[in-house]
Design goal:
143 residues, OB fold (Dihydrolipoamide Acetyltransferase, E2P), five-stranded mixed β-barrel, 7 strands, 45% strand
């Protein structure tokens, strides 16, 4: 059996790197993917799905060093199911609605933002880099 998922999106916050007790680097970050479509009533609907991504080893160090909030990435990896549900991790937002987050163990990460865009993001000049409508409600995500 085999599965692989490919996502392309923007980082919702700066990556966070830590080390396991054995000294292996791990970097965690969130990626937002956006889709716009027209529903049956003719209205445009914007849909955002958040993925929690973990990178390990040398890839974790490079990711932590070069990616910033708003950076565009392609992540190829495998979905990690919630041990309790067998699917995405379910949680309750502050407004009481149920939400889900998908966890991905990264096998490949490709940086899609140019070096200039990444440097602008690192210097806090994110307006000069296109970020594809990142949603403002990221503070609702519990990680």
């Amino acid at each position: 059996m085999f599965h692989r998922v490919i996502i392309v999106g923007n980082l919702g916050r700066d990556p966070e790197m830590r080390y396991t007790p054995s000294g292996t680097p791990v970097t965690n970050f969130s990626v937002a993917t956006n889709r716009t479509y027209t529903n049956s009533q003719g209205q445009q609907v914007k849909e955002t799905i958040w993925f929690r991504v973990s990178a390990w080893g040398k890839q974790a160090e490079i990711t932590s060093q070069y990616l910033r909030k708003g950076s565009r990435v392609l992540v190829e990896g495998r979905l990690v199911p919630d041990p309790n549900t067998g699917g995405p991790r379910l949680w309750t937002r502050q407004d009481g609605t149920v939400a889900a987050s998908y966890e991905v163990h990264a096998l490949t990460i490709r940086f899609l933002s140019s070096r200039e865009e990444t440097e602008a993001l690192a210097q806090g000049m994110g307006d000069s880099a296109p970020v594809d409508d990142l949603p403002a409600a990221e503070d609702e995500i519990p990680f």
